[in-house]
Write a structure and sequence with these properties.
about 475 residues; alpha/beta; FAD/NAD(P)-binding domain; Enolase-like, domain 1; 3 domains; five-stranded parallel beta sheet
Length: about 475
């Protein structure tokens, strides 16, 4: 069979790329190994075992905690909630199934052929697809897009079994609430899933090699967020490294040492979540034989048009440089499809939002203060606390703040950082503003409905020029 475009990998980057290519009139196929002989399970890690199921559990566990601890203060008397974990997991699976089936529908709607099996590049223009039974077929194409995503980064001495030592995949499928959970890694995944099980009753400790949580995010945001998580009951052991894990019938014993060196301590847990990051997944793709080069971190180098070292082979998403975010991969999938079709695809990497779906949420777009200082950019800061926002008071969601960073000379907004309930939704007015090169004054002079949490964004913009009204 011959195509204009074959996409290997049906995660957010891959399936969006396939849809856009088909919209542009290109004969398109997608290859996905996740699933069974009955067919591919589309959506990749994100829809099946990542973004979507974790958000279902985050939301459900937040409601569980709200019912148990938040209702009484608002005059709502209810019995103590009882956890039915099996039903909660059933809710999670319903959400996953609906989204996966939705992507299958989109493939049919856009006339994208789906091939189930592991894809391997034989050469430019040739893709082998081998199903679970070992049967192989060869597809021909003018262009190949690699969108195979990423996998869990391993840690020497800590072997994942998805039962007592789990990755994110196992952490969203536990059959009971552990009494003690240790999370290795204070990044997004560790904090999100650690917070789920803390709300459901586990005692959670986070061990992080660095001396701070959320590496790469604004330092003030990370510091304030850590205080809020500690207030909720999560404990942190920073500047520490896990050097080994021993499993027994009682659970897991971790050997933990100071990152700078020193005497080891033993930390006990019923379940250990390994969440130290993700790495590009390129295994079995035949890249070396096909002539596609990798960098020292296992990523596929590309030019600004997503072309690899081999003509006709492109790469997007987690396998190339940049933040490992589903929406970044989606935008790259759209861009590469448009470029293959002869159009002008483009991604603005300066305006890619990032969200941590803890409670409160943490959202950012653009530069951090540390990045601006390192680059020698003079800037002004405007901050506004949620304690001074009327709607936040009414909702009893006053934890957090908004911070706006603007160029000192031009007033162009360079970064916005939000810690708040619903921060993942609030951040997008900042993203739109920045996409159009807007200033803090533009944001400050935009009328915001009252009373809303969004007013805190406006007030932070006003605070850039030291003229906030409500603080």
């Amino acid at each position: 069979m011959s195509y204009d475009v074959i996409v290997i990998g049906a995660g957010p980057g891959g399936y969006v790329c396939a849809i856009r290519a088909a919209q542009l009139g290109l004969k398109t196929a997608i290859v996905e190994k996740r699933g069974t002989e009955k067919g591919a399970l589309l959506g990749g890690t994100c829809l099946n075992v990542g973004c979507i199921p974790s958000k279902a559990l985050l939301h459900a566990s937040e409601l569980f905690e709200e019912a148990g601890h938040g209702f009484k203060a608002m005059g709502i008397e209810v019995p103590a909630p009882k956890l039915d974990l099996k039903t909660m997991m059933g809710h999670k699976q319903e959400v996953v199934d609906a989204n996966v089936n939705g992507v299958s529908f989109l493939m049919k709607k856009n006339k994208v052929d789906v091939h189930y099996g592991a894809g391997k590049i034989l050469a430019a223009g040739k893709v082998e697809v081998r199903d679970a039974a070992g049967k192989a077929s060869t597809l021909e194409t003018k262009a190949i897009v690699i969108a195979t995503g990423s996998d869990v980064t391993p840690l020497k001495g800590v072997e994942i079994d998805e039962k007592t030592i789990v990755s994110s995949t196992g952490a969203i499928a536990l059959d009971k609430v552990p009494e003690r959970m240790v999370v290795i890694g204070a990044g997004v995944i560790g904090l999100e899933l650690g917070s789920v099980w803390r709300r459901l009753g586990a005692k959670v400790e986070v061990i992080e090699y660095l001396d701070r949580i959320l590496p790469g995010m604004d330092a003030e945001v990370a510091k304030q967020s850590q205080r809020l998580f500690e207030k909720q009951g999560i404990s942190f052991r920073l500047g520490a490294k896990v050097t080994g894990a021993t499993k027994s019938k009682k659970g897991v014993s971790l050997s933990v040492e100071p990152a700078a060196g020193g005497e080891a301590q033993t930390v006990e847990a019923d379940v250990v979540l390994l969440a130290i990051g993700r790495r590009p997944y390129t295994e079995g793709l035949g890249l070396e034989a096909a002539g596609v080069t990798l960098d020292q971190r296992g990523r596929i180098p590309t030019d600004k048009h997503y072309r690899t070292s081999v003509e006709g082979i492109y790469a997007i998403g987690d396998v190339i440089a940049g933040p490992m975010l589903a929406h970044k991969a989606e935008d790259e999938g759209i861009a590469v499809a448009e470029l293959i079709a002869g159009k002008a695809g483009h991604v603005n990497y300066e305006v890619i939002p990032a969200v941590v779906y803890t409670y409160p949420e943490i959202a950012s777009v653009g530069r951090t203060e540390e990045e601006l200082k390192e680059a020698g950019v003079a800037y002004n800061v405007g901050k506004f606390p949620l304690t001074a926002n009327a709607r936040a008071r009414a909702n009893r969601t006053t934890e957090g703040f908004v911070k706006v960073l603007a160029d000192k000379e031009t007033d162009r907004v360079l970064g916005v950082h939000i810690v708040a309930a619903g921060a993942g939704e609030l951040i997008h007015e900042a993203a739109v503003l920045m996409e159009f090169g807007g200033s803090s004054e533009d944001l400050a002079r935009t009328c915001h409905a009252h009373p809303t949490i969004s007013e805190a964004v406006k007030e932070a913009a006003l605070a850039v020029e030291k003229r906030a009204l409500h603080v």
